[in-house]
Amino acid sequence: MRILTIHADYIEVEALKKAIADAEELKEKEKKKYEEVLVVFTAVEQGDEDIEKTSNSLTTAIIEISNQLKTKNILLYPLVHLTSKPSAPRVASKVIQKTEELLKKEDFNSNHSPFGWYKGYTLKCKGHPLSELSRELKAEGDTGEIKGEKKEEFSKSLKEEEDMKSRFCILTSEGELIDCDKFNYKGYEELKKLVEYETKKIRAYETEPPHIKLMKEQKLVDYEPGSDSGNFRFYPNGRLIKKLLERKIDEICINFGAMEVETPVMYDFEHPTLKKYLNRFPARQYTVLSDDKKLFLRFSACFGQFLMSHDMVMSYKHLPLKMYELTRYSFRREQGGELAGLKRLRSFTMPDMHTLCADTLQAQEAFEQELELGLLWIDMLSLKQEVAFRVLTEYYDANKEWYKSLVKKIGKPALIELFPKRYAYFVTKFEFNFVDNMNKASTLTTVQIDVENAETYDINYIDAKGEKKRPLILHASISGSIERVIYALLENEASKMKRGEKAMLPLWICPTQIRIIPVNSEQLEYCKKLMENLENENIRVDLDDREESLGKKIREAEKNWIPYTLVIGKNEVEEKILTVRIRESGKEEKLDPEKLVQTIKEKTKGMPFERLSLPNLLSRRPIF
């Protein structure tokens, strides 16, 4: 809140016309004069939504100033132009009304100028050293400073995580636990990079990570200048890739037995259960103002799914019970230096699954099953991953053999972070981390065992004896955010390019799987018919019908990472045999159309299909 106080001989105020629809009702246009008065021009700002605390703070400041001036006459004058970040009008109105009431209780003659009106005034300032003062105020009990910007909201858990002194070790496939600085990393160079990333905690990039250049060159994704940092626009090719990844992870989770639900994107800051959870989740929130209510944008599907679980009737026979939502979108107000293209965003698509379990044994069984799903997902995308377990020390000590069995199943050493006390709601989690070209790590698959939120949200099931029990809850994202998966795929291809290899996305998510290039216009009609036949086989195919040279068309197909390029000349039309440039092998082969279709079907078996939304004739496509 900002105030400007004027100690005046008098102020004469005239209400002229309404400025807002919810303006204070007046019997008629008013003109009033206040003499020997402290005029308090007031601007209530975003972040001042706690009416009681804000009013108390304003009242305290006014009493302090008026006691110095020895005046009991106060005029509260709302002046929104004192700030560039005003609160909602209803909030400001309530603060003014409440402050006026509080001042009257302290024997002040307090009034306010009409709220929500255009006004004219004549004022005569006394002109002594204390006659003009300005202040920036904070609500009583608020430990943050207001310096022209909204106080950042973040949880106590986030601060505790930053202050945590953990022990970092390597757990080998043979079950040996070795301090990170004593482990021999020969043959495990990527694991060493993960360890350095986690222990040195240098998150910011010194130069732009290569996937940003690639996402722009391939016309997939770009920054959105009309939004907040960390928000992106997806062009048709990028949207297609994202949709296919979404469909596949949906399929995996639903086939795993998860019930698909949908929940709201914003929740009440003052909801007692949610408020408690906010302080236990290490993330920063976006806030939204709706009249006099302060809301936050979700950073996961936990809120909606847990509130839903609270309302469900469950018995031990229903457990383990899985619930799933693909959130479009989740929001985390990451710090500016942490933002890095598609790796770390402020709004993202998160496949969020929660599993309610009866006890530790059932929770560990589900944890292990979901780890196996993560391994399948990573393998499906041909990505490499480094595994990290994060675990409360006493939980690790009680379950050493279980962790050894998990690392043995993974088949290579894993990073183990042992934290001495529980700073959040979970006792353990695992992460599959992708290490990029700048030696920065990002979590893809992750699963956590939550021992707290069943109590927080009052979630119960009925056991075999008919008694209420609290379940354990697994938080799982089998893929990680979809945007981060695209980041990993592009970084993986950038790594190939550094080694002199050709970049190419997995065939099932390639926007264009086949490009047809006629040698000249004489083959154009044949190419159109061929394209139609291939499209009927559920293959994404386009036709370069532009008036460009054959060489340029072929070069552009290479630049666009097209897996199969068909160059159609007179011989191909007559012989009905395709000349196919195969990107993966770098070879050119002669294939009949049926053989090409069969090859693509085999390589994309079990994967979802979506048609490309761009025109299939390149001459009709806009340039992004």
Give the key terms.
624 residues; alpha+beta; D-tyrosyl-trna(Tyr) Deacylase, Chain: A; Rossmann fold; 3 domains; 17 helices; globular
What features would you describe in this structure?
The two termini are 44 Å apart. Residues 140-154 have low confidence and may be disordered. It is globular, with a radius of gyration of 31 Å. It folds into 3 domains: 2-136, D-tyrosyl-tRNA(Tyr) deacylase (D-tyrosyl-trna(Tyr) Deacylase, Chain: A, 3-Layer(bba) Sandwich); 166-264 and 313-489, Bira Bifunctional Protein, Domain 2 (BirA Bifunctional Protein, domain 2); 507-620, Anticodon-binding domain (Rossmann fold), CATH 3.40.50. By secondary structure, it is α+β, with helices and mostly antiparallel strands. α6 packs across α13.
Q: Structural class, judged by helices and strands?
A: alpha+beta
What is the domain total for the residues?
3
Query: Would you give the CATH topology of the largest domain?
Result: BirA Bifunctional Protein, domain 2
So, CATH architecture of the largest domain?
Answer: 2-Layer Sandwich
